[in-house]
Amino acid sequence: MATVLLVILTGVLGAWLAKREGLQTIRTAQLQMQQGEVPSNLILDGLCILVGGVVLLTPGFITDAIGFLLLIPFTRGYFKGVFQRVFSKLTQSGNIVFIRRK
After folding, report:
1. Which helix (H) or strand (E) holds 48?
2. Is 95 helix (H, G, I), strand (E, B) or coil?
3. pLDDT at 96 exceeding the cut of 90
4. pLDDT interval class at 57 (50, 70, 90)
5. How far apart are CA 16 and CA 26, in angstroms?
6. Mean of the per-residue pLDDT values for the chain?
7. Are the beta carbons of 70 and 49 closer than 8 angstroms?
8. CA 27 to chain centre
């Protein structure tokens, strides 16, 4: 019974945290775009929040821990660095191609 309650609690807490962090990231990105800046760092934040929210939906305590680490701003920085290195390698190898329109 305690395990089921803990799973439900982590799901509710994770959903609340994902919503809060996601909305804050969207607001900050909108402000940066209004000022003519490209919110590239916030795109990685959004990716971490999205992955963290999806991982929290997966049952299990390890996946919950990873999901919370992706949602908490303090620990998200490590994962942003990992994602940035992965994307950099993928673009350099030609596996991901960015097309820009002017």
Report:
1. helix 40-57
2. coil
3. no
4. confident
5. 15
6. 87
7. yes
8. 15
Q: Distance between CA 57 and CA 42 in Å, rounded?
A: 23
Name the residue type at position 81: G
Of 61, 23, 59, which Cα lies nearest the Cα of 42? 23
Quote the tokens at residue 96. Answer: 């991901």
Task: For residue 18, give the nearest of 71, 55, 80, 84 by alpha carbon.
Answer: 71
Joined together, the tokens standing for residue 22 give 């996601």
| Owner of token pair 């990685």 | 44
Cα→Cα distances 1→7, 13, 68, Å: 10, 18, 23
- The model's pTM is 0.76
| Distance separating alpha carbons of residues 62 and 81, to the nearest angstrom | 21
The predicted structure's pLDDT at residue 90: 86
Q: How many residues does the chain have?
A: 102
Identity (one letter) of the amino acid at 56? L
